[in-house]
Amino acid sequence: MGKSYNTIAFDANKCDGCGDCMTACATAKVGVGDTARSRIQIVGSADDGFELALCRQCGDPKCVMVCPAGALTKNFDTGVIEWNDAKCVDCLLCTVGCSYAGIALDAGSGHVAKCDTCDGAPACVPACPHDALTYVTTSRIYNEVGDWEDLFAPGLAGCQGCNTELLMRHTLRRVGPETVLATPPGCVPGMGSVGFNGSTGTKVPVFHPLLTNTAAMLAGIKRQYKRVGREVNALAIAGDGGASDVGFQSLSGAAERNEQILFMVVDNEGYMNTGMQRSSCTPYGAWTSTTPIGKGSGGMPSQGKTQDAKNLPLIMVNHRCEYVATASTAYMEDLYDKLDKAIQASKRGFAYLHVYSPCTTGWRFPTDQNMEVARKAVETNFVMLWEYNRTDGLRFTRPVDDPLPVTEYLRAMGRFRHLSPDQISHIQSKVVENLAFVQQMAHRQSA
Amino acid sequence: MTEHTKYLVVGSSHAALEAVTAIRMHDAEGSLTLLTRDPHLPYSPTVLPYVVSGRSAPDGIFLRDEKFFADHRVTLKRGNALKALHAERNAAELADGSELAYDKILLATGASPAIPPIPGLDQVSYHVLRTLDDATKLNAAIKSSKQAVVLGAGLVGMHAAENLVKAGAKVTIVEMAKQLTDGYFDAIAAGLIEKAFTDNGATILTGSRVVKLAPSTIGATLTLENGSTLEADLLLVATGVRPNMDYLAGSPVEHDKGILVSDSMQTSVANVWSAGDCAQAKGFFTDDKVMNAILPDATEQGRIAGMAMAGDPGLKQYPGGVPLNTYHFFGRHAISVGSSRVPEGGEVVTRFDEASGRYLKAIFSADNRLTGIYGVNEFFDGGVMCQLILRRIDLSAIRERFVANPLAVGRELMSKTWR
Ligand SMILES: Cc1cc2nc3c(=O)[nH]c(=O)nc-3n(C[C@H](O)[C@H](O)[C@H](O)COP(=O)(O)OP(=O)(O)OC[C@H]3O[C@@H](n4cnc5c(N)ncnc54)[C@H](O)[C@@H]3O)c2cc1C
Ligand code: SF4
């Protein structure tokens, strides 16, 4: 499998052109804060927005292609295109090869200069006072996970662009082959985990409990394995309906008994597999097939769901589980971190992982927009990423200090298209209220 | 039995190496042979001036090593030339008399120095610069040279002349054209280059022609058109190049100044492609086929040819050659991107600061597209300028700002348009 690399990411919306990154780069690289000598160049203006000229460390780099001296090489371990000053002959052909101004003449030295990511600790990133620059290190996960066996069958019958499939494949790779998997009715078995024609869709034992008894059955199976002396991961991947509505009784019971299982909820905010009916996790105002949009009855137009969503992960915190966390596939590092902790916790007791999982079909957004929708949910504080354990209490893992207005999230999909201004302000006020509530819990426990 | 290979790539320089990369991206297994008449591992002719000056070690310039060819399952045949192409039976006749059958062949044989037909030239010893062996010979010779003559003031000649000046020789450059670096840089830029050379003690005779050469005690005596003579203990002939395509004698592969190719580098004959300095392909500014013998174009053409040969569906047709040159002289830089010709209704904008020697010239078409940009001591991103030209980006609204600061404005346009 091809390697994936860390990269410097730029968020133009956050940049105000202060140039601190350039000063930091020039200082780190040539010892003086002359921004003209920085290898990261902020271009543009406050009117037009700022942009970046920076080496992209291309996979098939043209600068390397045209260098006559063999002075440029792509390091396939780090991904960085390295410049060898002993071989360079200052011909500048590389600057003609690069379409992105990623390698340019440094007049101060008379040689070309380019970003080398400061050996994996780029000086520009922490220098940005507005967090416009981030050093994305998620590649670590893909490099590691890429070598592990995918324990789901290829060619599942999920919708195109389904977030749940991504989540299943990552999760099973991580928990590994010594796993027994429970997948109650929902999208996960619907797309094939339980298999076709007498064979399973997974390469680990999988079973299909009822919506109501998933946690109870899985707990029993785990106990039986323990009794025969075999160490296995007991994992449930359940939908939000199966967990927060019909399956809640057995879920709550297993948590209260502190059963040694990992219960993952894929929250796509409805019964999507059976035709997109509402669940108690469906948010206020959302269209579903049972909370339709239309004339309504008795003079009351129907405008989507009229109740707010239940906050299931917070309820699980109140079971004082070994571990409870919320996560999103748009933040893979965070997700993996929590997955690791949840797996460890499930060896001691009940671990609960709640993953917000956008649904292209039920929420009605284009199939290529999954990550964007998932990211917007977090950036607007519509959902919050946090974790809880009994010792340290609750803490935000990706606090959003400067949230976008919730309309940025709502606008990204069809299920909220009909909302009236009143409904939108209701949702915005709920976001504020929920945030304050979780913040209070975080403060209380840290105090 | 004749040896057979699926892909035969002839040449081991930029065009050939990029074709190998492109073929292996799409076809990891098909048998691939790289045939080159050069005895060394692949290197670039462009780096040779630095071998001459001693800055680059001759064993430090190789672009690939044996391991690369082993890892990519490429059979490397060095020191054996293509002698005749028998396209009608898909076979290559080699200099050692053997024959190699192929499914597809790439002719990436580049160019060699063109030797002018001056009476007496064959009676004296002289240098040229195209191969590593040429460069090591010249490197040894400049150390003892006291008075050298360089024929031709193109980039190859100028580079060598600078090396000779720095090595302490008295150097005379003889050039037929009215200015030096003709075809690369305009008169003002050439004037700046000339001044740098004369300031450093070189003599430049433009508009001059050598009509006769004869051996002398120190080396050679050159007689110029005006009757005057020059003595040289070292003579370098750098009067241009001619493509290597003698092996096409009697072959149906169509050729003119070079080997004629389509926009996917295919020649007129099935299973035969050509790329680089030996190919004559479409120009970007004209539909005529032109010679654009520069390194970046050799790599691009090589890529396209390799993709076409391997049947890679990602192939994009050749947009046409854009002239690009960078030239480093006595610590200064000159860059040219695009055509020097002013299109009909177009306009030339220049700015020149005599004190700092900073010079910029930009050429725009009637509809405000950039068609060429030249700078001396004025750095801009050549690759960005090339994209502005290739994408025919409308600069009406920002032309003045662009000319004032092509570096910053070019980057701005880049980040808005193709980032
Ligand atoms: C001194 C010098 C300086 C230069 N500076 C610049 C510069 O600054 N910028 C720029 O853009 N360009 C420059 N060039 C030009 C540039 O080097 C060429 O455009 C480029 O090398 C072309 O690559 P190519 O692969 O087409 O051919 P070449 O580099 O010419 O390589 C041809 C290959 O084919 C082999 N070959 C030839 N005939 C046969 C045969 N019959 N059988 C087998 N093998 C054969 C040769 O051994 C060689 O390996 C310079 C050239 C020289 C000589
Ligand atoms: S300037 Fe240096 S790194 Fe760039 S192409 Fe020339 S030799 Fe290579």
Concise synopsis of the structure shown:
The complex is a heterodimer of chains A (447) and B (419). Chain A is of the alpha/beta class.
SSE arrangement:
The complex is a heterodimer of chains A (447) and B (419).
Chain A: E1 7-10, H1 20-30, E2 41-45, E3 49-53, H2 62-66, E4 72-74, E5 81-83, H3 93-97, E6 103-106, E7 111-114, H4 124-127, E8 133-136, H5 139-145, H6 163-175, E9 179-182, H7 187-190, E10 206-207, H8 214-227, E11 233-239, H9 240-244, H10 248-256, E12 262-267, E13 293-297, E14 300-303, H11 312-317, E15 323-328, H12 332-346, E16 351-356, H13 360-363, H14 370-379, E17 386-389, E18 393-396, H15 407-410, H16 421-446
Parallel strand pairs in A: 9-10, 9-11, 11-12, 12-16, 15-16
Antiparallel strand pairs in A: 1-8, 2-3, 4-5, 6-7, 13-14, 15-17, 17-18
Chain B: E1 3-10, H1 14-26, E2 32-35, H2 48-53, H3 66-71, E3 74-77, E4 82-86, E5 91-94, E6 99-107, E7 111-113, H4 132-142, E8 147-151, H5 155-166, E9 170-174, H6 187-199, E10 203-205, E11 210-215, E12 220-224, E13 229-232, E14 234-237, E15 241-243, E16 259-260, E17 272-274, E18 279-282, E19 289-290, H7 295-310, E20 324-329, E21 332-338, E22 347-353, E23 358-364, E24 370-376, H8 382-390, H9 399-404, H10 406-417
Parallel strand pairs in B: 1-2, 1-6, 2-3, 6-17, 8-9, 8-14, 9-10, 16-18
Antiparallel strand pairs in B: 4-5, 5-6, 7-15, 11-12, 12-13, 18-19, 20-21, 21-24, 22-23, 23-24
Helix pairs in contact in B: 1-7, 8-10
Bound molecules: flavin-adenine dinucleotide and iron/sulfur cluster (SF4).
Tell me the distance between the termini of chain A: 47 Å
Largest sheet of chain B: 7 strands, mixed
Going by helix content, strand content and strand pairing, the class of chain A is: alpha/beta
Please, how many domains of chain A? Answer: 2
CATH class of the largest domain in chain A: Alpha Beta
Our estimate of the beta-strand percent of chain A is 15-25%
- What is the tally of beta strands of chain B? 24
Biggest contact: A-B, 31 and 41 residues
Number of domains of chain B: 3
Distance between the termini of chain B: 53 Å
Write down the overall mean pLDDT of chain B.
Answer: 96
